[in-house]
């Protein structure tokens, strides 16, 4: 349980850093708000993996 809480805090910190990056780099902001939470598999229940096709606007957020 402690690992889950720690991981959520790390994800929050990563989101803040991403938002700062977007503010400092006009090209990195495609005109949408994007929030992503990345979690490792070690602390969470497992689910079947699915292929994911992101819209172009979302892909542009992480291309810089």
Structure notes:
It is a single chain. With 64 residues, the protein is mostly helical. It has one domain (1-61). It contains two helices and no strands. The radius of gyration is 14 Å and the shape is flat. The chain starts with a helix and ends with a helix.
Give a nutshell description of this structure.
With 64 residues, the chain is mostly helical. It has helices spanning 2-24, 56-61.
Pick out its properties.
64 residues; mainly alpha; 2 helices; Cullin_homology
Count of discrete domains:
1
Radius of gyration: 14 Å
- Overall geometry comes to flat
* Oligomeric assembly: single chain
| N-end to C-end Cα span | 34 Å
Overall average residue pLDDT: 79
What series of H and E elements makes up the topology?
A: HH
Summing up helix and strand content along with how strands pair, one would put the structural category as: mainly alpha
Strand content: under 5%
Question: Could you list the spans in which at least 5 consecutive residues all have pLDDT below 50?
Answer: none
Biggest beta sheet attributes: none
Tell me the number of helical segments per DSSP (H or I, 4 or more residues long). 2
* Percent of residues in helices: 40-55%
The overall strand count is 0
